[in-house]
Amino acid sequence: MHVRELGTAQGIDLDADAPVALASVVKIVVAVAFARAVTAGVIDPRERVRVPAALQIGGTGTAGCDDPVEMSLRDLALFMMSMSDNAATDVIYERVGNSAIEGVLADLGLERTRVLGDMGYCARSVVTELGLDSANDLDSKMAAAGEAVWGLSLIDPERANSSTARDVGLLLEAIWDDRAGTPQACSLVRSLMSHQITGHRLASGFPDGVVVASKTGTLPAVRNEAGVVAYPDGRRYAAAVFTRAASLSDRQPAIDSAIGTAAALAVRHLRELSRGN
Known about the structure:
By secondary structure, the protein is of the alpha+beta class. The chain is 40% helix and 16% strand.
């Protein structure tokens, strides 16, 4: 965990430099690359594209649709960040390209962050490692694979899209401080993250009136969330919380709520520290 008040040196860390599997938290990096391309005029966000049928292998958003879907690139980016649509992510990822993704990491000095590929890359690795016939309905196939899932590269920080809580916190700070791109690009990413539909992890630790803009990440035994918590008094806190369960159970409500609890306790302590000063 890494929690820091923006604009200050005050923070709380717990194993913040330990490697972690990013899961869909990696989509924050993709969103920054997309926003940079949009504000540079390289990508027209209004351009309508058809989501390839090959990407509709199950999951939320367009990834789970049975019929052809055509949307604007900016709406696909919204689906990527709000509901973690993997198909939308891969359309955006292909459009911005690997070099733009790597450019974000290099420009922001995120030396502990590694992006090996998009969601399709991750799915193909599972197909190969489990000896499956296809990636269709992949979640069900992984559930049926049982203990073999523990050996997947998908959840191994040494072989997956990976980072550290500290690096992700630095990424969040750069987005909120307008250093991850132009002010317009950073504003776009903040807007995309403000539409997160999942409220039972990070946001669950904070009362009404506290605004949370974030991105979740979920894999077998992995539940993450990273975002910025903004209080009515104007103080903001970057929070990156990564977890790994001892069970492959699909439902882990205690871990989900622990993400919010841990972040809230850290933020509360930081706010009390400042009052004391």
